[in-house]
């Protein structure tokens, strides 16, 4: 990749940035590491990785994220708590602060030019501008890196300007929630960040942009992981919220990873949005997650970890700074990936789509086949459950719903994405399965056990090789789910969850409780989704 350290070779004046200092564009990873250490932004860690501390913000700040309301966004954006409105005038004022910060600061400016998306026909040329070298390092890790030839005539179609050192002192008069701001202006094709150093704002910022732009082109944007078999065929999508096993199950030794977090589905097939991974590092173990552990080497960037200052050894179990410790690295650090083999992170159309849920009520089956309406219903619902006892005062399972399994990043109404899913399923003959990685025969507090990873992998194998379709299916009485009678390698009695419960009356009570929660959650999506209720519980 081309390395540019010459302000004359890139002009940011079109943004109102009249940079007096040096502009460093698309530095090599070696140079980025060097800059971070020289600037005292980072410290050396294990295996040649570097570490950074992001200050008071160690996670996203969703209440400080805004979208500028203008003619195009007014009619398209799904406005609400996730997508908060901001007037154009306030954006212009904040953008003025950002420009003043850059124009009055003679220190180096770091630029990363690259892409959101690995599909050459649909990738979004993006520009990330920062005053901290480690933020450019993060962008280099996370986005699709351009070739030298691509850089020569590069024209960004969306730009993020990171001004994490400044904040908005007038936030009260602006009717904003704090001094921190993450603001997207789709008309000007710019996002500005101030008051937070957390790198995930840049990553998820581009994800939100793609969630807005791609559906307009009939491309489904998805918060999911994806893999293919060793012959680069039979791709599969894995949707699931935290704790469902999405990362574990999509990282299969017998399959190759396309990507672990964000994908698009175009007429060409699947494509990864990113050129890297942004993995949680808390309680990371070499034995439990060897791929992530081994990816922490030269080029990787650790965030907010606790370490021994003498040995620089990281204590992954220490959550004193945050539970959200992170590591970013290029996806080719995962040896079991397409990228590691030098291939684009793309594939053909998936024949199998898996919705993962961790049901702590113990009433959903380990696997069920979904019809079209059920797929749309459960896609919009995005259900999993917290386990009783994980938080003070929680004595029973707590249901969690996130539309399309990625609620915080949706910019359009969930129905838009569900309709695209329906269209893709019909066009390419994809089947959708609900796979429950939660409890069998009762809730956790009853002493029941969670289904084993071995059993779940057996179920997923039966989906991928289509042997599951050889079984007879029976419809359950509460959720209307089609449950297989038999699967090789799985005990018959756990397939239909009621058979695993000793107390059948308690099973029906818990089933009713969960079905009511599904119905209550679905109301908030309005009359637009009324026709999809047939896909939910009776």
In short:
The chain is of the alpha/beta class and 538 residues long. It folds into two domains: 4-39 and 63-219, Phosphoenolpyruvate Carboxykinase, domain 1 (3-Layer(aba) Sandwich), CATH 3.40.449.10; 352-535, Phosphoenolpyruvate Carboxykinase, domain 3, CATH 3.90.228.20.
Walk me through the topology.
Layout: E1 4-5, E2 23-25, H1 29-38, E3 42-44, E4 50-52, E5 65-68, H2 71-76, E6 84-86, H3 88-103, E7 109-116, E8 124-130, H4 133-142, H5 148-152, E9 158-163, E10 181-185, E11 190-194, H6 200-213, E12 220-223, E13 225-229, E14 236-239, H7 246-250, E15 255-259, E16 262-266, E17 269-272, E18 276-280, H8 290-295, E19 301-303, E20 306-307, E21 314-315, E22 326-330, E23 346-347, E24 352-357, E25 367-370, H9 372-381, E26 383-386, E27 398-401, H10 414-428, E28 431-436, E29 439-440, E30 449-450, H11 453-464, E31 473-475, E32 482-484, H12 492-495, H13 504-522
Parallel strand pairs: 2-7, 4-19, 5-6, 5-10, 8-9, 9-11, 14-24, 24-28
Antiparallel strand pairs: 1-2, 3-4, 7-8, 10-11, 12-16, 13-14, 13-15, 16-17, 17-23, 18-22, 19-22, 20-21, 25-28, 26-27, 29-30, 31-32
Kindly describe this structure.
This protein is of the alpha/beta class and 538 residues long. It folds into 2 domains: 193 residues, Phosphoenolpyruvate Carboxykinase, domain 1 (3-Layer(aba) Sandwich); 184 residues, Phosphoenolpyruvate Carboxykinase, domain 3 (Alpha-Beta Complex), CATH 3.90.228.20. The chain is 25% helix and 24% strand. The protein contains 13 helices and 32 strands. The chain has a 9-stranded mixed β-sheet, sandwiched between helices. The chain has a 6-stranded mixed β-sheet with strand order 15-13-14-24-28-25. A hairpin with a 6-residue loop joins strand 31 and strand 32. The protein is globular and about 70 Å long. The N and C termini lie far apart (56 Å). About 1% of the residues have low confidence.
């Amino acid at each position: 990749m081309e390395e540019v350290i010459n302000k004359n070779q890139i002009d940011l004046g079109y943004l109102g940035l009249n940079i007096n200092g040096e502009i460093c564009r698309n530095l090599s990873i070696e140079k980025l590491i060097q800059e971070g250490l020289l600037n005292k932004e980072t410290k050396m860690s294990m295996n040649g990785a570097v570490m950074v501390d992001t200050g008071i913000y160690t996670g996203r700040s969703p209440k400080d994220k805004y979208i500028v309301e203008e003619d195009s966004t007014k009619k398209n954006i799904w406005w609400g708590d996730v997508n908060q409105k901001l007037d154009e005038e306030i954006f212009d004022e904040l953008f003025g602060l950002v420009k003043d910060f850059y124009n009055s600061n003679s220190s180096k400016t770091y630029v990363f030019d690259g892409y959101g998306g690995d599909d050459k026909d649909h990738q979004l040329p993006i520009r990330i501008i920062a005053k901290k070298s480690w933020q450019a390092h993060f962008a280099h890790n996370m986005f699709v890196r351009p070739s030298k030839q691509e850089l020569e005539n590069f024209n960004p179609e969306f730009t993020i300007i990171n001004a994490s050192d400044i904040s908005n002192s007038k936030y009260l008069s602006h009717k904003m929630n704090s001094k921190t701001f993450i603001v997207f202006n789709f008309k000007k094709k710019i996002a500005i960040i101030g008051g937070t150093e957390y790198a995930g704002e840049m990553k998820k910022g581009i994800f939100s942009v793609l969630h807005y732009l791609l559906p307009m082109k009939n491309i489904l944007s998805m918060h999911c992981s994806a893999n293919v078999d060793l012959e680069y065929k039979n791709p599969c999508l894995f949707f699931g919220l935290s704790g469902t096993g999405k990362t574990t199950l999509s990282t299969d030794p017998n399959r190759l990873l396309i990507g672990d977090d964000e994908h698009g589905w175009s007429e060409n097939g699947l494509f990864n949005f990113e050129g890297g991974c942004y993995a949680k590092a808390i309680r990371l173990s070499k034995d439990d997650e060897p791929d992530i552990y081994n990816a922490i080497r030269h080029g990787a960037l650790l965030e907010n970890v606790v370490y021994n200052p003498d040995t620089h050894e990281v204590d992954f179990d220490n959550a004193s700074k945050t539970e959200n410790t992170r590591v970013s690295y290029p996806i080719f650090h995962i040896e079991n990936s397409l990228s590691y083999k030098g291939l684009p992170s793309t594939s053909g159309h998936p024949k199998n789509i898996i919705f993962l849920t961790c049901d702590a009520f113990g009433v959903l089956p380990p696997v069920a086949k979904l019809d079209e309406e059920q797929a749309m219903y459960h896609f919009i619902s995005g259900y999993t459950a917290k386990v009783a006892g994980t938080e003070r005062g929680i004595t029973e399972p707590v249901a969690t719903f996130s539309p399309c399994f990625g609620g915080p990043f949706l910019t359009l109404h969930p129905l838009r994405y569900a309709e695209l899913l329906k269209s893709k399923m019909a066009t390419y003959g994809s089947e959708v399965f609900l796979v429950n990685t939660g409890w069998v025969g009762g809730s956790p507090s009853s002493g029941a056990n969670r289904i084993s990873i071995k059993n779940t992998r057996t179920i997923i194998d039966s989906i991928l090789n289509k042997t599951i379709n050889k079984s007879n299916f029976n419809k359950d009485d509460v959720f209307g789910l089609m449950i297989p009678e038999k699967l090789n390698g799985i005990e018959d009695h756990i397939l239909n969850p009621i058979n695993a419960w000793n107390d059948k009356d308690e099973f029906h009570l818990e089933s009713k409780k969960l079905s009511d929660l599904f119905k209550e959650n679905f109301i908030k999506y309005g009359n637009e989704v009324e026709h999809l209720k047939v896909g939910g519980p009776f």
